[in-house]
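TEACHING EXERCISE
Course module: macromolecular assemblies
Task: Read the component lines below, then compare them to the predicted structure of the full complex.
Student: A.B.
Group: 4
Components provided:
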Amino acid sequence: VETISLARGVPAPECLPAEDLAECARAVVERDGEAVLNYGPAGGYGPLREWVAERHGVAAGRVIITNGSLQGFVFLAGALAPRGPILVEAPTYDRPLRLLDGLGAEVFALRVDEGGLEVDLLEVVLRQGLRPAFLYTIPTFQNPTGRTLDAERRRRLVQLAAHYGLLIVEDDPYGLVRFEGPVMPTLFELAGAEQVVYASSFSKTVAPGLRVGYLVLPEALVADVETAAASTYITPSLLPQATLFEYLRLGCLRPNLDRTCRLLRERRDALLAALAGELPEGRWSRPAGGYFLWLELPGGVLVADVVARASSAGVAFVPGTDFFPPGAGGENALRLAYSFASPRELAEGAVRLGAAVRGGTLRRAA
Amino acid sequence: VETISLARGVPAPECLPAEDLAECARAVVERDGEAVLNYGPAGGYGPLREWVAERHGVAAGRVIITNGSLQGFVFLAGALAPRGPILVEAPTYDRPLRLLDGLGAEVFALRVDEGGLEVDLLEVVLRQGLRPAFLYTIPTFQNPTGRTLDAERRRRLVQLAAHYGLLIVEDDPYGLVRFEGPVMPTLFELAGAEQVVYASSFSKTVAPGLRVGYLVLPEALVADVETAAASTYITPSLLPQATLFEYLRLGCLRPNLDRTCRLLRERRDALLAALAGELPEGRWSRPAGGYFLWLELPGGVLVADVVARASSAGVAFVPGTDFFPPGAGGENALRLAYSFASPRELAEGAVRLGAAVRGGTLRRAA
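Instructor-supplied answer key:
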């Protein structure tokens, strides 16, 4: 049995606009090869910085474009971690958790429920006197839960941030990958550029192999991050940034997003429908966008027990524990990515997962 | 007066094969877009890893391709610095010096003379019992001196490394940028893959804006470096790596090197000739390849005094002190890059530099 992977947050090949990007790469090197092919600014390809800056209403100097947004988090965390403990959501994206651990940072985790980060808990710890270096949050279509911070909590969060001088690092790679429902204002839009570091990426909106992420920074952090970038790689990879800029300049982003969201929504729907049939006793989130859903196993079932059976049954996922600091939770949960597998594979994956959860042998789909 | 920069090691625009790379970028995304545009291995684009591995006679798993070779040094130094003090050449490339300083590493600097690293000094410190984590060396067309470790010293260096169990990090971005004279074996070729980490890049042989550098690693270091890469950026930028692979596959490297070396040799010759006329009292290296020469100021003249006068005269360079640990030397020396300015500008730059050194006012070239 070939394994069906619902593990990694990787887009399906048909989401990648290869033909257009091939032509954009050629065109931009022909037109601007002298800049694209030589050393350049540590903050990234000028025209793309300007495009991002205009979109977010800031000066281009506030935008630092990095080789993927995780690299930006590495620079930021390196600069900020010495200033104090760090607040994260629980569960949250596993790679930043590992990086913070590697930096020896003291990490406090705040629970996420159906409405996103439990802002009440944040208020409690701030009122108790905790002064974190920053709060790391993914408010929209969160990785790993697919949940979105509701409008009321967004307002309260930025009020708290202003009151307590809390710096928010808003990671927003999925915000534009929305299938339905009203667009929410970002924390950056609500709180302004001095209270929020806004991080995003073109990995989910155009193509991850380009490795183009960015930070919109408060003035006070620009020099630190830019110096870290120059000391690490002198200049980021300019060819992908210039190719992407060409793609944006030609107006390809919106139609591509419409196409991608349609493909992803079909996949989400296929997975939700299959789960309802195969795991009626479980509970899972119903994301309105993004790549992931979060599944809580029926009472008493531990994900550690399901992993091995799932592997034999031919389905892969990421155990919930990966998204918490060690020992802090996730033992009865798991993350499913619906971004890569086809609707048919997603349905079959749910069948296999159901069998693995019930501990039984593989029941074949029709 | 527009400043003539002899400061940064940047290739002249005519060295960059923009037209060919534009076409290679298009072709490879069309052919292999599914791999190039998605997440991939942390070690880089498979076909390029294989190309590099074959060139150096190792398995592809030993090659880690990074976003520029400095990024590889960051990973390597992060993994190795905790193991002990680090030996460097003095003078040496300034960015690794800064990075090692940032890591809090204990750094010992060994002098470089006309024949390269003074291997006698290395033997003394090793015999005295120093057990460094590694020696960082640029044996061919060194940055900043342009000097090359001679054949006899190469043999002695690898013997010492074997005898004392010394790990050598051989940084070799300029080795193929040779204008004249016999090709020297690399330390990696002399000592084998377990004693030497070999680092190189396509920045000086194709185009720096691609940001494609690589490490050839001893088996024991592969996992550490690969994990650091995945934790930093998941996957390096694949589009430039794939574009470069296409360029190599089509056999463009050798003709481009011939062309680039011709352009650079003209520039070196123009600078050497002009210096002989303008600064007869100074001493400088006569590099047989690479981007840089090292100039020792006439007796008593300090580079700190020359910098301000040179700036007024309209010529820029990097002071020698930047290439030493703080206080360890370079006060009467400077680095000149002949890679970017045209032969005519190089000649004029030498005139201005001569005036600045003599402390006089600007004497205009004919």
